[in-house]
Amino acid sequence: MRTRFILIQTSHAGNVGAAARAMKTMGFDDLVLVAPRWPNVLRREETIQRASGALDVLENARIVATLDEALDGMSHLCATAMTPRDFGPPTAAPRAHFEMLLKRERATLNGQALQAQNASNPDAAGPEAAGAEAGVAFLFGSERFGMANEDVYRCHVALSIPTNPRFGSLNLGAAIQVVAYEWRQALGGFAVQAATPDRVQADAAQVAGMLAHWEQALAAIGFLDPAAPKKLMPRLNQLFNRAQLGAEEIHILRGVAKAMIEAAQAKR
Description:
This protein is 49% helix and 11% strand. The protein contains eleven helices and seven strands. It has a seven-stranded parallel beta sheet with strand order 3-2-1-6-4-7-5. Strand 1 (2-8), helix 1 (13-25) and strand 2 (31-34) form a beta-alpha-beta unit. Helix 1 packs parallel to helix 2 and helix 9 (204-220) crosses helix 10 (232-243). The longest helix is centred in the middle third of the chain and has 26 residues, at 94-119.
């Protein structure tokens, strides 16, 4: 689904940059500002610094005068309103609402595809084309006053991020990050990227060579009696197999064995 983040009457330039950063980390780039305090907010130094490299999101962002312009093409509107109201759209946690929304969207697309097949119309739109115009918009109000009642009333849902009941105050950038994360997870998410290279496990020959070195070292320090070794080496073999040693660890253990042999020889 097309996704748009809409900031209404944002007063702090840094929050616009933080919004761009939060969006880019989750793979979104459609940002619209409605009547921000600063007409040049997208070019202000604080905005650029807080964007932390998400300059492409800022370059693609649009500034409009009214919410109507910002909502063009969007079919499902999500308010982010913490203040209780006498009436309005139902309140839901982002995760639960997104699951419901996507389930309903899939059902709609499947129904449209079935209708197209039953009609035997080769030109009928498939699931992809049928949902091409669907779009979800996340609306965020100003830092000082939140969303106006009339803007909330236009929405299908008021998203509420589950927080500590005694302290639910979230910075605008943080709120956008949470909503963007939950929406990305609902859409399928990104794979976790390893922070370290994949570990290469030592092969049997490397383990055997290390054990032979250790057998020599243990005999040198008098811990192993070559004439009556009993089950020491087989037990060590099992121990190191369970440890699933890597090549670097084999190198370290052979260094320990070498140091034991040198220490034993120095005492003679």
